């Protein structure tokens, strides 16, 4: 059985975190944190997470600083910023710094959020080389077979070097 992708949701609004957990729990293993410091602790102690979704405006540590530190702590975790309060300069800074995969605004339609998370999961699988899809497994087997054949004596590539 394949385990669900792990998603860490970070926001200072407990009601929003509860709503995210409720709406995502069937497709993802969801963990929540009510701020950047708690989320960094979870990344270190309970990681790895496939995706982290963070609010921008939070007390103590804003989403940009949190995502920058999250990148250092868990570089393979794909980062999404979900916010209703970031200004254009904030968004440009975070995107240009390379800290996020997607920038989403609140209120975010559920289908947009789900698509962003699925794309983030796919990105994480590409980045880490892990995938549970049958086509990916077939490709790895085919590539392995081709690689072995190219190293064999029957390979035309070997004839040119002999």
How many domains? The number is 2
The name CATH uses for the topology of the largest domain is Rossmann fold
Total of helices: 7
Counting helices, strands and paired strands, the structural category is alpha/beta
DSSP E strands, number: 5
Low-confidence stretches: 133-147, 155-159
Please identify, by name, the CATH architecture of the largest domain. 3-Layer(aba) Sandwich
The side-by-side strand order for the widest beta sheet comes to 2-1-3-4-5
Shape: globular
The biggest sheet amounts to: 5 strands, parallel
Global Rg: 20 Å
Under CATH at level 1, the class of the largest domain stands as: Alpha Beta
Share of helix, binned = 40-55%
Distance between the termini: 47 Å
Written as H for each helix and E for each strand, in order along the chain, the element string is EHEHEHEHEHHH
Percentage beta strand = 5-15%
In CATH, what is the homologous superfamily of the largest domain?
Answer: Response regulator
Q: Report mean pLDDT, rounded to a whole number.
A: 82
